[in-house]
Prior knowledge:
Elements: E1 10-11, E2 17-18, E3 21-28, E4 35-42, E5 47-48, E6 51-53, E7 57-63, E8 66-70, E9 75-78, E10 83-86, E11 92-96, E12 102-109, E13 118-120, H1 126-129, E14 133-134
Amino acid sequence: xELLKQQPTTKAPSDWFAGDVWFDxxxxxxxxxxxxxxxxxxxxxARTNWHSHAVGQTLHVTSGIALxxxxxxxxxEAHPGQxxxxxxxxxxxxxxxxxxxxEHFALWEGTGDGRPETTWLEPVTEExxxxxxxxxx
Length: 137
């Protein structure tokens, strides 16, 4: 057993995120583990670029309201305590509503074969971000 050293909070890179986003690496597994866990905090209206994960991603919302968009125009609205599973290879984005900060845990796995875990794509347009939402309480 090992008590892991807490990593410093990091500002998310502007080439992958719009707005102010900060993350804490909770766990970045070493072989044989491929688990990755980050706590991510989004300021109002902040969001990721479009991206996909080779082995999928799970998002667990802890505060605020998360918006998760996919290429068909669907924007899922997830509330604290809700968990969203994004399948492998699905292009998506996630972020905060314009009114509230949002925090979630992002969980995903490395590929184990040298392929990138995440493929980062273009920014989400304002039209895409403002699309109709589904999945509200």
